[in-house]
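User: I'm writing a tutorial on reading structure tokens. Could you give me a worked example: one chain, its sequence, then its tokens, then a sentence or two explaining what the tokens reveal?
Assistant: Sure. Here is the example chain.
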Amino acid sequence: MERNLKNGIELMWTGKERAISEARKPATHILKHVHSGSMLGVKFNHLFIEGDNLEALKILQSNYLEKIHQIYIDPPYNTGQLFVYNDKFDNQEDWLNMMLPRLIIARQLLKDDGVIFVSIDDHELANLKILMDETFGKENYIEIFSWVKSETPANLARKSKKVVEYVLCYQKKNNKKKFKGIKKYSPSSNGLLNQSNKKGVLVFPANIVHTKIKDGIIKAGKYGTDRYDIDLLEDTIVQSGYFNKEIILQAKFKWTQSKLEREIQKGTKISIPTLRLSPSYDKTSYDPEVPPNLINHKVGVVTNEVASTNLTKLMGAKV
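And here are its predicted structure tokens:
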């Protein structure tokens, strides 16, 4: 059942207090180094633990408490199917009792600016969202990403085809860090004028701005387009495809002077191609965009079908 709280909803069920107590109990096992399974002599800073993951999480606390940048978990979805692991819990409360202590310890392992991602499907999505709101704080919720798991979903006797699964994302503490998504590399040309802005003055440095104007002196005066008035405040000179004297323009610009200077330092190309003196900029690359909440081939993530094909190629047979 759910209980209304001042700051949200708390999920209540039989065994919840025992699950919280389980998270507080110390580890009862220790890690044993298996030499035959190790890459001896190779200096990799990796640790692979085989065993019960709750015990493993407890053991990790001794060395990694509040030190982990990122956690990804793929827990049982409680679909009722039998795999090499148990994905069939007798009731929903058993699934919640399994999840809660693991989420509590996972949060303790994260750094203050750490994040956690949890895969799930629609069987337990609603319960997991409330459980993570309670464990990490509703204010630390970031996103429910939808992963396109199949481009050819089974046409079963139900009212929709299951194309997506979900990845819930939370941060340990609220911060201003942005996620980095796809970075564009294709060039793009953009005008530097914006009709809704106030008039301002930009000083374009000498020998930086490219042009197609013939060599010679360009006199101060009024220029522009049908939509924009552009004033050249001082004479300037064109030579060999560049303005070899600074250009001082007054118009409704998108950028400030400091923004112009930062972009030039980053390698953004500035051009004033014609005697209209309308400036534009060309970016050869972009800062990474924040990622979309739809995860598919457009962001470099493939489907289960592709993964199965790749695994067969890797192993030499279907395994």
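What the tokens reveal: The mean pLDDT is 89. The two ends are 41 Å apart (CA to CA).
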